[in-house]
Every structure is written in structure tokens, then in C-alpha cells.
Design goal:
Shape: globular
Low-confidence stretches: 1-51
Oligomer: single chain
Bound molecules: zinc ion
Strand content: 15-25%
Radius of gyration: 17 Å
Helix content: 25-40%
Number of domains: 1
Strand order of the largest sheet: 4-1-5-8-6-7
Structural class: alpha/beta
Amino acid sequence: MRIHGCGPAAAGAGLCLAMLAACGGSSDDDRPSSPATATTGGSPASTATGGGGSAVSGKVIVIDPGHNGGNADHPDEINKKVFIGNGYKACNTVGTSTRDDYSEHAFTWDVAERLARILRDRGAQVTLTRKDDTGVGPCVTERAEIGNRLRAEAALSIHADGADPAGHGFHVIEPVAVGRNAPIVEPSRRLGTAVRDAYRSGTGIPYSTYRGQDGLDRRGDLGGLNMSTVPIVFIECGNMQNPGDAAKLSSAPFRQRMAEALAAGFETYLR
Ligand code: ZN
């Protein structure tokens, strides 16, 4: 089984083991500040261009940019085990990168900021799960708790994959029932379909050739999905190890397209 985010950028076996915990997660970490309050933003509707006609206007949306820039230098903090509903995994992971060293954490941060800007312009109340790209964590479980506390109407965790270079394309990961998340499995699947369709048509990136079916996968080993009580999906926007995908992921104009496509997914789901 492929290990999420365990690409060449992972500096050693220890980090690779930590990456088994991938992108789920739970709370008691030592992160330096509260992302929930730090980045709660979004002036409701008033300044929005076309906010009146937008389905996201007034909606509470949480965006989780996977990983963090300081994780690699703080293995003790991010390797700490947290309970993810059906077992224990590392608090957080380093993530992958392209062959040219464009990191997943920088990618997810950039797309998240672009997406947040679009949604806020349309009147949504958007919160990111971290306040910058230089911190540590938060744990995957805490990322889920941020959406839970805010009672978000929808949440999206943004990632890019570190799979075999021969594979390419994107996939959306939906939750399976693991205790507390059972009530949000069905709405999360509607969210997953909306995000998949919007991303496919908005970016032209094909469905993953190596994972899932028709751009959709379901997993019970991610804390971010297991511990959520609000509708949530993950998206692996492409495979950073694949040269074709990496070129797109590394392009700022293309990342804007990705963000606009993801915003369209929220529009569909929240309509
Ligand atoms: Zn990731």
C-alpha cells in the first residue's frame, strides 16, 4: 500500500514512518498559536462581488492546507501519536515534494489562500487550519476539531500526492463511518462528488491512474476524516512525483485555476 506523502523529500525512515499517519489527526499538540482564531476571516457578503448570487455567501467553510513548513524540523512534535477514532497515528507529517523541491506544504498553503480569497469575496466565512506556512502541525485531529467547533457547513483538506512517478491525476478521498463521523459520511459523499466534478472540469486534470475509482476513493485511516463531525473530504490535487502533474502543481496560474475549480465545488455542494 502506498504511503501518503512518503516521497524522496522525506529525510529518512523515521519521517516515512511518521507519514503512515498521513493526513488525519487529533488534538493535544503544542502548536504555537490558535489557527482557528488566527485566520478566521471573511467579511460576510457586503464586499462580495456577486455575493448575493453565490451559494457560499454566509456559509462557514474550513480549509485545511495539509502539513506545515516547520514540521520537518520538529519530528518529536509531529511524530507524537494521536487517537484517530480507530487507532493511533502521528500528529502530523512532513508531506512530499516535486523533484524540483517544490514542497507539498507550500503548495497546499498557496492553493488554500487562493481558495479562501475567492470564497471570502463571495461572502463565505472561511477559516484555515493553520495561520502560515512556517509553523508546526497542528495535529490532524486538531485540524478536524477546528471544523467541528465552528460547525462548518463544509470542510476541505488540500494535499498533493507522493506516489509512484508513473501514476498521475487527482483523486478525492471520502470518509467511511468510524464512530463519531458516521452522520457526515453521506453529506461528505455529496461534497466529494461536487469537488471531484468541479476539479475535473475546471483544471482538466484527469482522474488518478493509480488510486480510487473515477477520481474518488474512500479511507478509514485518516484522522482528518475519522474525527470530523462536519462534512469533509480530502483532495490529492495531483502526483508531485509525476513530471506532468508536477509542472501543473508548480505553476501559480494553474494553482489559481485549481482554487477556482474548488470554489465551484463548494458552490455546487452548498447550493
Ligand atoms: Zn499530504
